[in-house]
Design a protein that fits this description.
There is one protein chain. The protein is of the alpha/beta class and about 650 residues long. Helix content is about 30%, strand content about 25%. The protein is built from 21 helices and 30 strands. The strands form 8 sheets. Strands 12-11-8-6-7-14-15-23 form an 8-stranded mixed sheet, with helices on both faces. A hairpin with a 2-residue loop joins strand 9 and strand 10. The protein is globular and about 75 Å long. The relative contact order is 0.10. Bound molecules: 5'-O-[(S)-ethoxy(hydroxy)phosphoryl]adenosine. 5'-O-[(S)-ethoxy(hydroxy)phosphoryl]adenosine binds next to helix 12, strand 20, strand 24 and strand 25.
Length: about 650
């Protein structure tokens, strides 16, 4: 069946930053002469010392090195705040919408400037210096944005840990970056409940050793305080001067670290730097969403994920936008909350994840119909492939067929969108992220030979041929791991970890991860992380974890567990193991299905055949393929007989 194609409306295209001809001309120019293209785009920022070099990058395996605007000097907070003050001092920078629908606030650029300068001075008074790392473990409140921008104002590097991670996971990240300060809040209200952030920090510090904390009084809960270690945000800010000059930073100085799951080992600290990242976040925000002065932009992500970094804070604020920050969840007080907020704040661009769309779709159209959504001009999705049913519902019910949908494919590592429609330029097909952004050269490789498939129609692994300014620069403290994770399997290319199909029109369709990373509700989870949490339990001998299709979450977490001899399987033990994983990693890693496996399918050399485990988890065991290399083929029969996912 032919794909339905939705061309951009003529009126939209006529006033968009890019129509089809502009996109094609700019794209061609960006590939023909990247230096000239990105030189011009670099001018979207204010530089304290202008750069003389633009692109200096190589993917050559022997010496992978990525530098952009290398000798330029700038400050990110000055670009996101100070330079807008003359023209936008009284404009709203951040609209904050609280968990409770009665709580909201507008913060102007002038107020943002004052708060960030004061907080930067508080950091200094707590001993934070240029190059030091600050861990943020925050609710979705304006102070989270202040805390990020105050870091780069003084040249400190933030590492945000999502508030849903457990004390154990937080401790690992505090230690990994040798944090000098932790900024947190007493509690994080979400969906009418309060996550005990400060209590989690206390537990984390028992593991990592004490680090000074700065605690925002979000709910005002009366909590224990460790004298000399814990500092009140309110008290510290009351003393602080609002005068803090932005620190001159080299374009390649680190801006932030963000831990993300890979196929093996502990999460990797993805490092983004100052100049190229901001150019790329700013440009993608402007073009992908067709952002125009005066628009209200809402990205529903959490600042704990890269989407929140690039499209709640850095991209929008670099562009002088009004960005909406939402503390709550889509279903509180009811499943109409997103649309109530869109109506209340007259949102123009709305950006969310397919998992949220699928969940809301199941609640019925009445929750959407109640609200006036006529302000919406562009709808975006991110985080996982969107199934055509969800795409169509988003298009018809939310967008009333009038708002173009941008399905943005990108990664923590890429800093910003790599493939996405531009809403005035590129016809969309439900489920396809369409075509590359400026400067991005996707290639599809044959998985085993690594040969680039040159035919238009192709399927294989997705790699990128050359660098773009938003690309990650290294893994924090481990450049070899950066090279081996991204540049070793397919030499000369950046390997994305995703599978991909290119159709006859040259459109790209992401088919999901080809490594041992699963995507649960748009959040990346390494199966190895869940496995190591499970085997840390005293009753577990061995565990193997795979993803399986899940109606709402996209993928669910399916665990095969072999118990220590003498331990009896029971439903109580299932609950115990589920809670154990939640404690070790966080609720986002909660196993959906746990199957007791007396044995795992292994080759004679002891390697677990994950392909078989995936098939059984998918309830698709008719085509298991060759099992003759298994040490004990009979374990497969047991796995099939006791499978947990039966459709
Ligand atoms: C997946 C989130 C299909 C993909 C920004 C990628 C997507 C991983 C899409 C990165 C999309 C993200 N269509 N798949 N539009 N967007 N993905 O690092 O597998 O949390 O590799 O970054 O999510 O997840 P991450």
């Amino acid at each position: 069946m032919a794909d339905t194609i939705y061309p951009p409306a003529a009126a939209f295209a006529a006033s968009a930053h890019a129509d089809k001809a502009t996109y094609e001309a700019m794209y061609a120019a960006s590939i023909a002469d990247p230096d000239a293209f990105w030189d011009a785009q670099g001018k979207r920022l204010d530089w304290m010392t202008p750069y003389t070099k633009v692109k200096d990058t190589t993917f050559e395996h022997s010496g992978v090195s990525i530098k952009w605007y290398d000798d330029g000097v700038l400050n990110v907070s000055a670009n996101c705040i100070d330079r807008h003050l003359a023209t936008r001092g009284t404009q709203t920078a951040i609209i904050w919408e609280g968990d409770n629908p009665e709580d909201s606030a507008h913060i102007t650029y002038a107020q943002l400037h004052t708060e960030v300068c004061k907080l930067a001075n508080v950091y200094k008074s707590l001993g934070v210096r240029k190059g030091d790392r600050v861990v943020l473990y925050m609710p979705m409140i304006p102070e989270a944005a202040y805390a990020m921008l105050a870091c780069n104002r003084i040249g400190a590097v933030h590492s945000i840990v999502f508030g849903g991670f457990s004390p154990e996971a937080l401790a690992a990240r505090i230690t990994a970056c040798d944090a000098k300060l932790i900024v947190t809040a007493d509690q994080a209200p979400r969906g009418g409940k309060a996550t005990p952030l400060k209590a989690n920090v206390d537990k984390a510090l028992e593991i990592s050793g004490d680090v000074p904390t700065l605690v925002v009084e979000r709910t005002g809960a009366d909590l224990p305080n460790k004298a000399g270690r814990d500092h009140s945000y309110t008290a510290a800010m009351a003393q602080a001067s609002a005068d803090c000059a932005p620190e001159p930073m080299n374009a390649e100085d680190p801006l932030f670290i963000l831990y993300t799951s890979g196929s093996t080992g502990a999460p990797k600290g993805v490092v983004h730097t100052t100049g190229g990242y901001l150019v790329y976040a700013s440009m993608t925000h402007q073009y992908t969403f067709d952002y125009k002065d005066g628009d209200v932009f809402w990205c529903t992500a959490d600042v704990g994920w890269v989407t929140g970094h690039s499209y709640i804070v850095y991209g929008p604020l670099a562009n002088g936008a009004t960005t909406l920050m939402f503390e709550g969840v889509p279903t509180y007080p009811d499943a109409g909350r997103f649309w109530a907020v869109c109506e209340k704040h007259k949102v123009n661009q709305f950006y969310t994840a397919p998992t949220a769309i699928r969940a809301l779709m199941g609640q019925g159209e009445a929750f959407v119909e109640k609200y006036d959504l006529s302000s919406i001009k562009v709808l975006g999705t991110v985080g996982e492939p969107i199934n055509p049913e969800a795409w169509n519902w988003y298009n018809d019910v939310v967008g009333k067929g009038k708002a173009p949908i941008v399905d943005t494919w990108w990664q923590t590592e890429t800093g910003g969108h790599l493939m996405t429609p531009l809403p005035g330029a590129i016809s969309t097909k439900p489920g396809s992220c369409t075509l590359p952004f400026f400067g991005v050269q996707p290639v599809i490789l044959e998985p085993t030979t690594g040969q680039e498939i040159l035919e238009t129609e192709a399927e294989g692994v997705l790699c990128i041929k050359d660098s773009w300014p938003g690309q990650m620069r290294t893994v924090w403290g481990d450049h070899d791991r950066f090279v081996s994770a991204y540049f070793s399997d397919y030499k000369g290319y950046y390997f994305t970890g995703d599978g991909c199909r290119r159709d006859a029109d040259g459109y790209y369709w992401i088919t999901g991860r080809v490594d041992d990373v699963i995507n649960v509700s748009g959040h990346r989870m390494g199966t190895a992380e869940v496995e190591s949490a499970l085997v840390a339990h005293p009753k577990v001998a061995e565990a193997a974890v795979v993803g399986y299709p899940h109606d709402i979450k996209g993928q669910g977490i399916y665990c095969y567990v072999t118990l220590m001899s003498g331990e009896a399987p029971s439903d109580e033990l299932r609950v115990e193991l589920r809670n154990w994983v939640r404690k070790e990693i966080g609720p986002i890693a909660s196993p959906d299905l746990i199957q007791w496996a007396p044995g795992l399918p292994k080759t004679r050399s002891g390697k677990i055949m994950r392909r078989i485990l995936r098939k059984v988890a998918e309830d698709d065991f008719g085509a298991l393929g060759d099992t003759s290399t298994l040490a004990d083929p009979s374990v497969v029969d047991d796995l099939i007989e006791n499978r947990m996912n039966r459709s």
